[in-house]
Amino acid sequence: MTETLVPFDEVLERYDPAFGLEVHVELNTNTKMFCGCPATFGGEPNSQVCPTCLGLPGSMPVVNAKAVESAIRIGLALNGSIAEWCRFARKNYFYPDMPKNFQTSQYDEPIVYDGYLDVEVEGETFRVEIERAHMEEDTGKTTHIGGATGRIHGADYSLVDYNRAGIPLIEIVTRPILGTGAKAPLVAKAYVAALREILLGLGVSDVRMDQGSMRCDVNLSLSPKGSDKLGTRTETKNVNSLRSVERAVRFEMSRHAGILDAGEAIFQETRHFHEDTGTTSAGRPKSDADDYRYFPEPDLVPVAPSREWVEELRATLPEPPAEKRARLQAEWGYSDLEMRDVWAAGALTLIEATVAEGASAQAARKWWMAELSRAANDRGVELAEVGVTPAQVAEVQKLVDGGSLTDKLARQVFEGLLAGEGSVAEIIDARGLAVVSDDGALGAAVDEAIDAQPAVAEKIRGGNQAAAGALIGAVMKATGGKADAKRVRELILEKLA
Hints:
nine-stranded mixed sheet; ATP-binding; transferase activity; protein biosynthesis; asparaginyl-tRNA synthase (glutamine-hydrolyzing) activity
């Protein structure tokens, strides 16, 4: 059935959006949540498993202390309260990716509760209230073979890799976010971006959304304009990029409005997000907490972090992101607009790393916010996933500063890096991009430019050194942009002044 989508501006004329975000974060512990299996990414399927994470009879779990420490630090960084006593529960459901037929999680007694995170969108600050953050384990990964959609329906068969089963997870759940209006998609994106920045600063996860170590479920509903009652929500599962979080909110708002305008009811369900089209499709009916038949996990003792330990961990928290941005802005000399654009583009950490590699703040911003941002937009990926590292950007800029590359040639180096043509040195060598600085070769090109533009040469002889720009441009054109412009100017003035 073809769904009617209402233009975004029209949605806002008749409805108020409400949304909530559930962000799942894989912790970068050495081992899994309840066993000693390695918690590394990319191993051979089913090579990092044991009786405990496979749910074999008689196996007994043990809580990963490092995961508890990371959960507490996350809670403190999100301005949350840390429970003095909490415990794990069994979340019962049957699906092949969870071999125990239940997920060990936390239910009514999470380790973190009542936090918040302030995010800024277009000069306006929104407070996102965090209801809870709880510890749990990840599921295995199911791959459906055959069929057109890559999903279980229509597949010929399915394969399950249990390496991921048991990886420590923190699920961070917001309260309903109201009053954002037209900025709802941007607030959702900004919140996940701010959360990712905090988690990176804490060092508790690599938050690689492209690899699934940070995933976002987007809950959304619409209410008639001015109503104080929330509408029926849908939950778009496993959205895996900042851009997609924004697109998922925007699409679901338009889709919900189309259903409501037709006088029909929203069906409470999970939805799948499609990266290629920016649309969602139906998944399964949405379960409520009661459907999972939670009960306390009998094989694990409660977690009761002492107040002394909590305060010790509080002392390890890094500089808050807002304070860090203000400090970096002052150090880098960025204007408010420049800093806001850098933050919105997800370039702050990348620029910081590039500066740490030796580039100037202005040069780092130039490359990340121009050439590389354009490439990321063209590919539909986040800037951090574009395929160029801060070290490479700094290396290219060092060559520009040293006169070995011009900005024009540097852009060609970045083209090669984006195309996967090798290292900076290999690309320069293969493409022949080194700057021509030999006086013999440059002198001949300068003589040709002078002979071709005698009127300009006369102006320079008459003392108008600014006219040298025309001759420099001619030499640059003749050398394919490879000439050392500074040396070209010196040669022109030597010959004509």
